[in-house]
């Protein structure tokens, strides 16, 4: 298994609806958007995209996640009707620094189609901007530091039951943080090895806003035999303490479950301990 260098690699992608199809997308757009991103990756490197889609890194982890779409819309049944032709999102990758220009080139001028059985909307990529890492001033990847992150998509935490389904946890439950750390440690094991993961110092603390956290139910692969309903939460902050390389992994690969379907995406700002 190839071990990639830990680099915090985030791109802001601005989209414009190109008018080829409709102006509606499903409320549960995360899975078709994930499929559209895989399709773009496959054009640049079919082997890498297939690896991400089918295997990931140890235990099936895919070191890639994306934020919610930022756009103006109104809800109509199970559709989001766009009120403007513009939208944007951030995409995070776990890739060597040398891949930055390659990834930028992959997405420029590409088309992203968000579709299911009921609707189809096409967007043209207008710009791809590489964003600076909140950890860029830390030179030593083994330095233990602190980073406060905010969810830019729902964070899904849960424990697997005997029937292989997850019992989802909310931020009021102690298992919310412990399951996020468990998932984070497993991703470290996949990126490095089990021994490094076992000895990694990983601390996490919830910092609530004045308004309470919010819950959202997302359906993956809706209207298929593989339909999965996921309960996640947002509208809070998490204070993370770990080595720089492990914090970057959290930014690149997301926190919690279903990261490659756009869950657990976080944006961070470094705070001095």
Question: Keywords, please?
Answer:
globular; 24% helix; 6 helices; 35% strand; Alpha-Beta Plaits; 273 residues; 2 domains; disordered N terminus; 5-stranded antiparallel β-sheet; alpha+beta
Q: How many β-strand stretches?
A: 16
Oligomer: single chain
Number of domains: 2
Structural class: alpha+beta
> What is the topology, as strand order, of the major beta sheet?
3-6-1-8-7
Q: How would you concisely characterize the structure shown here?
A:
With about 270 residues, the chain is an alpha+beta fold.
Question: What would you note in describing this structure?
Answer:
With 273 residues, this protein is α+β, with helices and mostly antiparallel strands. It folds into two domains: 9-131, Alpha-Beta Plaits; 144-270, Alpha-Beta Plaits. 24% of the residues lie in helices and 35% in strands. The protein has helices at residues 30-44, 46-54, 100-107, 174-191, 194-199, 244-253; strands at 9-17, 24-26, 64-66, 73-76, 79-82, 86-93, 111-115, 120-131, 144-151, 158-160, 166-168, 203-208, 214-220, 228-234, 236-243, 266-270. The strands form five sheets. It has a five-stranded antiparallel beta sheet with strand order 3-6-1-8-7. It has a four-stranded antiparallel beta sheet with strand order 12-15-9-16. Helix 1 runs antiparallel to helix 2 (46-54). The longest helix is centred in the C-terminal third of the chain and has 18 residues, at 174-191. The chain is globular. The model is unreliable at 1-6 (pLDDT under 50).
């Amino acid at each position: 298994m190839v071990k990639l260098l830990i680099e915090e690699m985030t791109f802001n992608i601005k989209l414009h609806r190109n008018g080829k199809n409709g102006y509606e997308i499903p409320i549960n757009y995360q899975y078709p958007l994930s499929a559209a991103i895989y399709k773009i990756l496959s054009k640049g490197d079919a082997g890498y995209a297939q690896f991400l889609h089918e295997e990931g890194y140890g235990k099936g982890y895919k070191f890639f996640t994306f934020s919610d779409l930022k756009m103006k819309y109104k809800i109509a049944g199970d559709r989001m009707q766009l009120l403007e032709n513009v939208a944007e999102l951030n995409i995070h990758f776990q890739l060597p620094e040398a891949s930055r220009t390659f990834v930028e080139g992959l997405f420029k001028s590409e088309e992203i189609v968000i579709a299911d059985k009921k609707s189809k909307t096409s967007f043209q990529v207008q710009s791809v901007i590489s964003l600076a890492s909140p950890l860029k001033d830390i030179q030593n990847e083994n330095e233990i530091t602190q980073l406060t992150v905010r969810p830019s998509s729902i964070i899904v935490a849960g424990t697997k039951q005997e029937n292989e389904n997850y019992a989802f946890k909310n931020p009021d439950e102690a298992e919310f943080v412990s399951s996020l750390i468990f998932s984070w440690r497993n991703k470290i094991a996949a990126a490095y090895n089990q021994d490094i993961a076992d000895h990694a110092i990983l601390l996490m603390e919830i910092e609530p806003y004045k308004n309470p956290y919010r819950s959202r139910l997302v359906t993956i692969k809706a209207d298929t035999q593989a339909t999965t309903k996921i309960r996640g939460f947002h509208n809070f902050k998490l204070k993370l303490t770990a080595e720089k390389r492990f914090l970057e992994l959290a930014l690149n690969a997301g926190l919690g479950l279903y990261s490659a379907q756009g869950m657990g995406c976080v944006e961070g700002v470094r705070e001095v301990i």
